[in-house]
From TrEMBL:
GO terms for biological process: inositol metabolic process; signal transduction. This is Myo-inositol-1(Or 4)-monophosphatase. Its EC number is 3.1.3.25. Its cofactor is Mg(2+). It comes from Rhizobium mongolense. It is an enzyme of class 3 (hydrolase).
Amino acid sequence: MNHDLETQLDVLRDVTAKVGAFALLRFRNLAQIAIETKGEADYVSTVDREAESLARRLIHAQFPTDAIVGEEQPGDAQGDHWLIDPVDGTANFLSGIPFWAVSIAYVRDSEPVLGAIALPALDALFWASVDSRVHGTGPVSPLVGTQPIAFGIGRNRTWPVAHRLEVEAALEAQGFHIVCLGSCAAALAMVAAGRLAGYVEHGINLWDCAAGHVLCRAANAPSSILPEANGKVAVIAAPHLTETAKALSTGAGTQSFGAR
């Protein structure tokens, strides 16, 4: 069902803030959290599941017939839908490192068009529609006119190490300092906020990057989501890449959607 995007964005911001507040309370009581693994070094906790359930309830309270897809609970991603990553950067969260995010997007006609990311432990919240500007609150709200020297790279077991190192070398040759922050969503929020020069990660899921992709485009930071094998995607948010570094990052001939 189609709704007014402005109304949806208001709900999206409110839901993301409330889920972030819930997760932050649990973050402050880590000793009480049960930890499991979904795969090799792929961690999940009761907080991930409870946070996603809360987001679903809050969205359904406003839009009871809308489809919802989340990291922890499957859903139908064929039509328009909400897309939830309840805690992006779970390893950081469970280690007591404050760089983790709640990331929620709305996908219309197969493209993310609304996005909100909360960084609860940093008291920050960002939200935007893809054709508007980025809104932000907190101490890491968007900066204007900055020229960051740090460039974010994601690490995971799907992205071949040799290719990642090749991309890192190309970026370092361009003069960037490479950082891995441990959360795709949080790193993309930093690109949109003018704190990172860009971000690249292959072998991820759409819920990892959809909201951050929207924020980057709203901030006029070119961003692409590239389909890969086995339902995975790559995200390249890179305002300042040379053609050589861009080619290495995206792969020659790769088709993307949502580029700008």
